[in-house]
């Protein structure tokens, strides 16, 4: 599968995937997104579970066993980790060319 075709990620999906570097459940993901974004991104439950559904379908995340039967816990798959790395590289490239053009390479 050509993982580059899944890029660019939406900001919300990017933060959700970052949150899932460590296995986590829905409410903890929402809290982690807020924390990582310095409270600039807040994910509503419906938005988050829609994104989770899409990530599951794309096989970028998977459900992992949990001791708490009331909570579904997710983590990145190897493909999800690779997509996240590709997205970070894409963003780094954007920053590098932007700094060069806008700030004159400073």
What is the domain tally?
A: 1
The CATH architecture classification is: Orthogonal Bundle
Helix content: 40-55%
Structural class: mainly alpha
The top-level CATH class is Mainly Alpha
Strand content: 5-15%
CATH fold-type name:
Arc Repressor Mutant, subunit A
Task: Kindly report the name of the CATH homologous superfamily.
Answer: Winged helix-like DNA-binding domain superfamily/Winged helix DNA-binding domain
Strand order in the sheet with the most strands: 1-3-2
Round the Cα radius of gyration to an integer and report it: 15 Å
Cα separation of the termini: 38 Å
Largest sheet features: 3 strands, antiparallel
Molecular shape: globular
The chain-level mean pLDDT equals 95
Instruction: Give helix and strand order, one letter per element, not per position.
Output: HEHHEEH
Number of contiguous helices: 4
How many beta-strand runs? 3
The stretches of 5 or more residues where confidence is low (pLDDT under 50) are: none
